């Protein structure tokens, strides 16, 4: 879990409005039609992905409490969860 969380901590970036997002991202529910008529799903900050990342961060925080270690990493996650 920690490795996955570290991956996202390294890859989240601020969008033009200052929100942390994944970029590129992919939406499985939404699409747009490209000039050639094909469907495109690439986007910035797909909601499903961001929900999974938030859940991962929250579960890491719970594991830190249960295992009573790596509190510094928990503090780093706090900065992204708030």
TrEMBL record:
The lineage of its organism: Bacteria, Pseudomonadati, Bacteroidota, Flavobacteriia, Flavobacteriales. Residues 1-80 form the Glycosyl hydrolase family 95 catalytic domain. It comes from the Bacteria. It comes from Arenibacter certesii. Gene3D superfamilies: 1.50.10.10. This is Glycosyl hydrolase family 95 catalytic domain-containing protein. Pfam families: Glyco_hydro_95_cat (PF22124). One of its GO terms (molecular function) is alpha-L-fucosidase activity. One of its GO terms (biological process) is carbohydrate metabolic process.
């Amino acid at each position: 879990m920690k490795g996955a969380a570290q991956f996202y901590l390294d890859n989240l970036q601020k969008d033009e409005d200052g929100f942390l997002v994944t970029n590129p991202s992919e939406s499985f529910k939404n699409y747009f039609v490209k000039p050639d008529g094909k469907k495109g799903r690439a986007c910035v900050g797909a909601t499903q992905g961001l929900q999974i990342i938030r859940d991962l961060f929250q579960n890491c925080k719970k594991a830190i409490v249960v295992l009573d270690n790596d509190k510094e990493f928990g503090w780093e996650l706090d900065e992204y969860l708030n």
